[in-house]
C-alpha cells in the first residue's frame, strides 16, 4: 500500500502549523499499538478511554464479523433489529433505577445534545415555558458540539473562545465544601425557574483535567437538583463501564439520574456508538396524542447494527470476565506505583480512582517534549494541560502496566528535576 497522503487531514485539537506529524499506526492488539516503522507502544490511554477489553478482542471481532454478514446497517426509522433491542434491554437492566428508555446516537457529544434536548422538551411537553438554560459545573467537559460546548467549563475549558456564540448557562462549583453546598443551593433557588436541568460528570471530570470528587458530592448534587424540582443529567461517557471501579460511577453515590449519557467504552472501543437513557417519568412526558410532543431527533446511523453487535459483545465480556476486579487491581497498582511522586517539587497532586491514575503538575511543562520522552520509553501517554494520566485497558497485563507506571515516574522525575 502506498503511504497515506500527508497534507489532506485536519487533525483533532491540533495546531496544524506547528504540531509534530502524527505517528502511523498499522495494527493494535491487547494493550499494544504497532506503528508503521515497527515500533510497538504500550497504550496508557486505551484510545481515549474506549478500549476497555484491550484492542481486537476476539469475542467482539467475531460478533461484528457475524453482524457484517447479516446486515451492516439499516435505517432505524420504522425498522428495528435484534442487536439494538437486546442492547437496550441489557443497558436498562444494568443501569440503576428505572433508567429504562434508550435513545441511540453515534458520539458522546450527540448523546449530550440529545440529553439537553430531552430536558428542554420535557418542560415544553408539560406546558411549562421559560426553562431554557442548564446548570453545569466548573471544570466540566461534555463534548465538542455547540450545545455540549455551552455546558463545558466557560473559562478554563478548551471551548472558552466560543463563549460569545453559545447559549449562556449557569455555572457553579461542585459542592465539595459546606460553603459550596450553600452556594449551589442558593444558585438553584434563584435560577430554578429558568433552568431545564442540571448536568454533571459523576466522580471525575475527565477531559477538564481528571478532577475527582467523592460520591457524597455527587449525592449532594442529586439531592439539590431534586429539591429544586430539576431533572439531573449524569454524563457517564468517560466513567461508564468500569473505569471508576464500578460499572457506572453513579452507583457509588447510590443515585438514579433522570437522564444518563453513555459512549466511549460502550462498544469496547470497536465502533462509534452512544446512548442517552431516560427514566420512565422522563419518557412518559413525551407520550401524547400530539405528534409534536415526540422527541425530535434521529441520527442517520442511529443504532447501527455493527456497533450494537460490538456493544452486546462488550457487555458479554463484562458478564463473563472479572473486569471490575481488574479495574480495582489496576487502581491499587497505580496508587502504589505513583505514590513516590507525591510531594516531589513540581508535583501538585497524585490521585487515583478505579483504573484512572493522575499526576498533576504545579506548572505546565513543555508538553511536546514530554510526549517525545514517553515515546522514547515505548509508551503511548498523552499529557494535557497540567496533568499526565493513565487510563489503560482494564485487561492490561501487570508487566505492561508496570512499564507505563515506570515511564510516568521517570518522565515526571526528569521534568521536575530542575
Ligand atoms: C468524550 C466525552 C464526551 C464527548 O464524546 P465524543 O464521542 O468525543 O463526542 C462527552 N462527555 C464526556 C464526559 C466525555 O468524556
**Estimated helix fraction:** 25-40%
CATH architecture of the largest domain: 3-Layer(aba) Sandwich
CATH topology of the largest domain, what is it called?
Aspartate Aminotransferase, domain 2
What's the β-strand tally?
A: 16
Task: Give the total of domains.
Answer: 2
Q: What ligands are attached or bound here?
A: pyridoxal-5'-phosphate
Rg over alpha carbons: 21 Å
The structure class reads alpha/beta
Estimate the mean pLDDT confidence. 96
Pathway: Cofactor biosynthesis; biotin biosynthesis; 7,8-diaminononanoate from 8-amino-7-oxononanoate (SAM route): step 1/1
Binding site for substrate: 48, 141, 264, 298, 382
Enzyme class: transferase
Organism: Methylobacterium gossipiicola
Structure, explained:
- It is a single chain.
- This protein has 418 residues and is α/β, with parallel strands linked by helices.
- It has two domains: 25-53 and 322-417, Aspartate Aminotransferase, domain 1, CATH 3.90.1150; 58-320, Type I PLP-dependent aspartate aminotransferase-like (Major domain) (Aspartate Aminotransferase, domain 2, 3-Layer(aba) Sandwich).
- The protein is 36% helix and 17% strand.
- It has helices spanning 46-49, 58-70, 82-94, 108-125, 146-150, 178-191, 215-227, 250-253, 280-284, 305-320, 323-338, 367-376, 398-415, and strands at 25-29, 32-35, 40-43, 99-105, 133-137, 170-172, 195-200, 204-205, 211-212, 232-235, 259-262, 274-279, 347-353, 356-361, 379-380, 387-390.
- The strands form four sheets. It has a seven-stranded mixed beta sheet, sandwiched between helices. It has a four-stranded mixed beta sheet with strand order 1-2-3-15. It has a three-stranded antiparallel beta sheet with strand order 13-14-16, covered by helices on one side.
- β10, α8 and β11 form a beta-alpha-beta unit.
- α2 (58-70) runs antiparallel to α10 (305-320) and α3 crosses α10 (305-320).
- The radius of gyration is 21 Å and the shape is globular.
- The model has no long low-confidence stretch (mean pLDDT 96).
- Pyridoxal-5'-phosphate binds next to α4.
